[in-house]
Design brief:
This protein has about 190 residues and is mainly alpha-helical. The protein folds into two domains: about 100 residues, Rossmann fold; about 70 residues, Orthogonal Bundle (Arc Repressor Mutant, subunit A). Helix content is about 55%, strand content about 10%. Strand 1, helix 3 and strand 2 form a beta-alpha-beta unit.
Length: about 190
């Protein structure tokens, strides 16, 4: 559940989470009443709330009654060293890493299908090269493919993962161990 009071931040966080292609349902709430209703009627795994709620008794009741596995406070400031904070200054990769880590430490389900399992070995190589910034022509040359075949692999990757942007593929590649943060130059 995404709970910051700012509509723009809620929508931005929702899009970032959608780009990660995580197997979770995303709920938006502008206030504690809506958040409480959502929590009562749904299994909430994670709450991302604005720091404006940190001292609110209603927020503390929401957190303890719903028993979410993870709680992040979203801040306009960068607060280094605090693992439970997200900030406006985080890259999509940093955001993804924190959220994925939180979700994995909660209810980890080994039987849950992941998009990576659907990719062929060659498609994984193409994802890796795309995440590293290679063009279609570069991919064709590096993998000794025709340009048409490289484009076909890219279309299949988009179809299987639902990720259309280079940034989304980069996040996916990092989260699935295809490249490191250092390789991505972030």
């Amino acid at each position: 559940m995404i709970l910051p009071q700012s509509h723009i931040i809620r929508l931005g966080l929702r899009q970032c989470l959608a780009d990660l292609n995580l197997p979770v349902k995303i709920f938006l709430a502008a206030d504690l009443t809506t958040a409480t209703d959502l929590s009562e009627n749904n299994d909430i795994q994670l709450i991302i709330a604005g720091e404006e709620f940190s001292d609110d008794a209603g927020f503390h009741q929401l957190v303890t009654s719903g028993k979410p596995e993870g709680i992040f406070l979203f801040s306009e400031n960068h607060l280094p060293g605090n693992e439970q904070n997200l900030s406006l200054f985080m890259t999509p990769v940093e955001l993804a890493a924190k959220i994925k880590m939180m979700l994995q430490t909660g209810k980890e389900n080994e039987n849950m299908p992941t998009p990576e399992k659907e990719l062929s070995k060659r498609e994984k190589e193409v994802v890796r090269l795309l995440a590293l910034g290679a063009s279609n022509k570069d991919i064709a040359e590096k993998l000794n493919l025709s340009l048409h075949t490289a484009l076909t692999h890219r279309k299949n990757i988009i179809r299987k993962l639902g990720i259309k942007t280079a940034a989304g593929l980069t996040v996916f590649a990092i989260l699935n161990g295809m490249i490191t943060l250092e390789e991505a130059n972030l």
